[in-house]
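=== How it folds ===
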Amino acid sequence: MRTRPVHYVLAAVCLAILLAGMIYPMWQMLERGFTAPGEKAGEVRFTLDYVTRALSQRTMLESLANALLIALATTLLVCLISIPLAIIADRYRFFGKGLLSGLLLVPMILPPFVGAIGLRQILARYGGSLNLLLQQTGLLEGGHFLDWFGAWRFWGVVVLEALHLYPIMYLNLSASLANIDPAMTEAAANLGAGPACRFRRITLPLMMPGLFAGASIVVVWSFTELGTPLMFGYRRHIAVQIFERLTEYDSSGMPFALVVIMLAASLLIYGGSKWLLARRAGTAVSGKATVAVQPRRLGALGSMLAAAPFVLVIGLAIVPHIGVVLTSVSADWFNSVLPQSYTLDHYRDALGHSLTLPAIANSIKYAGLAMFIDVALGLTIAWLVVRVRVPGRGLLDGLAMLPLAVPGLVLAFGYVAIAAEAKTSLKVLEMVGDPTRWQAIKIGFLRGFDLERNPTLLLIVAYAIRRLPYVVRAAAAGLEQSPVTLEEAAANLGAAPSTVLRRITIPLIAANLMAGALLAFSFAMLEVSDSLVLARRAEYHPITKAIYELWNRLGSGQFIASALGVWAMALLVVTILATSRLLGRRLGAVFRI
């Protein structure tokens, strides 16, 4: 499509929004981490004191090392889980394959932050289900318990995060394997190459783009994940150390310096993984398969063997979900393998509690408004990149996908930095006895960034920026598969660009837009980092912050928190099933940087 002046205007507006919503918060965060008050009032000076103090503390270095080890171990475990499953699903047709492939996505319906609630009940040292079961089967001697949240706490975080993140790797690998031309492996087989040689020399290099796409998200996500180590009580983790210093943000640059260190480490990890994996991927032959892949049909015994790893992984992956569900329906669960009595009262309380009812309404409001922003902005960006191809479209597309690579905790503290800057400016303006009209407008604007008064604006913007990549990728996939000739024909007949968009383009990609919108809404509903960091007052808590607050309360708090988590699971179940049906194998493209 021919580039017009209006396209440049739209590109400039989208670029300005991305810079204001993502780059500016990160700049503010960097500025607060590297500046300190000067000798004169209102003066600031550049300093490395906060960073050097953080790096000189043994606790911080240990926390950073632990987070790195968790990220590497999680990514390795995710690869060990996902690669065999993706290859089996791509090469063989067996009984129950469709059902098992769908069930593999189950871990995506529950953040590990919530799944940790169920695991804490199952793996508790005293009275936990697993320890009691091991004692009853004679595998543990009487009076001896395994301390899963002590010496095994590191591996508990790794396993829980891996069981949540492997679907992202599986989806990317499945998409890559679908694009491999089977003629290449057949030619290698005809030349005498065995299965291991074909996998090492043909399949693995060709699936590297998908492997890198999945690994880059998994390694950054697991490195900066806050909720899981927080719920496991794993304090020697850089994300938890940052969260515990949140109250210092107004008086010290230390929390921001820690976030800078985390961001730098994340970029190094991402760059290192890209160099390691993309180097091999660059030698691969890319392109669509010229011949449709025909999976080999397996008999009864073969189907059982092929389904076995799927059943094993799914069984392990749903353990946290089972724990959450059992906790949510238990009236009394202590010192027994299963709850001693059951009740549904916690579900009623979860929808009527003084903390949960406003939280549900808040999450729907925040996520709903963020979704509308994502659809409008994501569709515009995808259209400019795919259809118009304006100059600088690579930069626009890269910025839109950057939230997948930038840790959520980093962006959250970027908005905290904006709030701190707005608070300082607001104090200066409020000192004016009789403000002018412009000053009054500015005061009202700055109050919208006050986290203590009302964090709604920042939460909506944070949710929208974090989930924008899903809509951009879904819309771009739809545009790439829709014939541009229909739009050109309508334009040649005199239809205005807005008419072409409304009558032709949007109906053609409606399924993709709906899928992207569903993903953006649902994952925003259960956003962890932004919710825990930005929501301060109880009346503005979203669902995840309410779950965290309830879990820390005595009495029935953990049971109501679990019930609220189950309600959230039900929402995401519907979303993932609908999205998978709309996008099919293209669902993996949504989770690709």
